[in-house]
Design a protein that fits this description.
The chain is mainly α and about 375 residues long. Helices cover about 70% and strands about 0% of the residues. The protein has 21 helices and no strands.
Length: about 375
């Protein structure tokens, strides 16, 4: 809906306000009148009506009013095309990269400023400022609302894939809210990644990202127990994994490999594939996983990637070596809950229980995900 309104109005703030107002009206009327047969169309028509009311009151929007009253605002807007246009608009190279990603997560994925700040491991005020500046820049620079042509695509594809990756991560394990995961958001990110693959069938990293998402989604039904508690990978019932999704992801990964354009998403997908193809936790090929992480660190030596490699090294080289690597990351990840949760597990393996409990408590203060909190409290008890 936001994408459809932005396409016509060219105004992010107004489009977002109209969507929110239509959702509020639905919350008021649907419990009494029932959910309409086409709820999406109902919401879009309501947003358009509210937009018309708003624009009629503002003379400077007469041109946009004519567009809204015309045939351009149909109820059957091609959602995929609209959202891709919106993503590429937000990821225009005229915007700073961090602003591109923040704005797209806000405008396309609908993430809150709090959720985006957690994804960036930064504060909310900084993210809010980035989003405001990016919106202003789009208007001032008259950035076009369209999917770029082939010659322009290379400048944008990296940022677009970054956005979809962060969007998927937020859905797979939510950073805020009462739900531990947002399956709909993760599925939405995978759907958009599929659109990117159809748009760019020779872009190996887009294919690798789609493979990565499908491999993780294949395990979704086994990730939580009946009470909503998080089930760790080593404890999951692998019979509940979606084998059809795993097979399609492995085929995508082979297709990406044939293009001979290695990249971080393909390596992450290869790591996920090692787990997906292993018949049991005990049979996991940790040597191959650590080798893949080594290659990944060479490409993207981020602290979070290095932390994940340390987790893998725990099972290949033992907790002492893994702890050394984790401790080296404190300067960058002291405000990241998984750093302290990982450190706690390694300390416990080494018999340093008191230090492990302190690390768990620190991790508890840094996460708001209910399933993660329950797991950490269980470790304390």
């Amino acid at each position: 809906m936001t994408a459809a309104l932005v396409r016509t109005l060219g105004d992010f703030d107004l489009a977002e306000e109209l969507v929110q107002e239509s959702l509020l009206e639905a919350l008021e009327h649907w419990p009494k009148d029932g959910i309409p047969q086409r709820p999406g169309a109902w919401l879009l028509i309501t947003a358009r009506r509210k937009g018309l009311d708003r624009l009629r009151r503002e003379a400077r929007y007469r041109e946009k009013l004519a567009l809204l009253e015309g045939d351009l605002m149909s109820d059957d807007t091609a959602e995929g095309d609209d959202r891709l246009r919106l993503i590429f608009t937000c990821c225009h190279p005229a915007l700073p990269r961090d602003a591109q990603v923040a704005l797209t997560l806000r405008a396309v994925a609908g993430l809150t400023t709090t959720e985006i700040a957690r994804a960036f491991i930064t504060n909310e005020a900084t993210i809010a400022q980035r989003i405001v500046r990016a919106k202003r820049k789009i208007v001032e620079a008259n950035i076009p609302y369209r999917v770029p042509n082939e010659s322009e695509m290379a400048d944008r594809v990296g940022e677009v894939l970054s956005v979809l990756y962060l969007m998927f991560n937020e859905g797979y394990l939510a950073t805020t809210g009462a739900r531990a995961s947002r399956r709909d958001l993760a599925e939405d990110a995978a759907w958009l990644a599929g659109l990117m693959v159809r748009l760019m069938p020779k872009e190996a990293e887009a294919i690798g990202l789609l493979a990565l998402m499908r491999l993780h989604l294949a395990r979704s039904d086994a990730r939580f127990d009946a009470a909503g508690n998080l089930v760790l990978l080593q404890e999951q019932d692998r019979r509940r994994w979606d084998q059809e999704r795993i097979s399609s992801a492995l085929a995508l990964l082979r297709r990406a490999g044939e293009l001979r354009q290695p990249g971080p998403y393909q390596l992450q997908a290869a790591i996920a594939a090692c787990h997906a193809e292993s018949p049991s936790w005990e049979g996991t090929d940790w040597q191959q996983i650590v080798a893949l992480y080594d290659a990944l660190v060479d490409l993207t030596p981020s602290p979070v990637i290095r932390l994940n490699r340390a987790i893998a090294r725990r099972y290949l080289n033992g907790p002492a070596i893994a702890l050394e690597e984790v401790n080296d990351l404190e300067w960058a990840l002291d405000n990241y809950y998984l750093f302290h949760a990982t450190r706690a597990e390694l300390l416990r393996d080494l018999g340093r229980t008191a230090e492990a409990d302190l690390a768990v408590r620190r991790a508890l203060r840094l996460t708001t995900n209910p399933a993660e909190q329950a797991l950490l409290r269980k470790r304390l008890s």
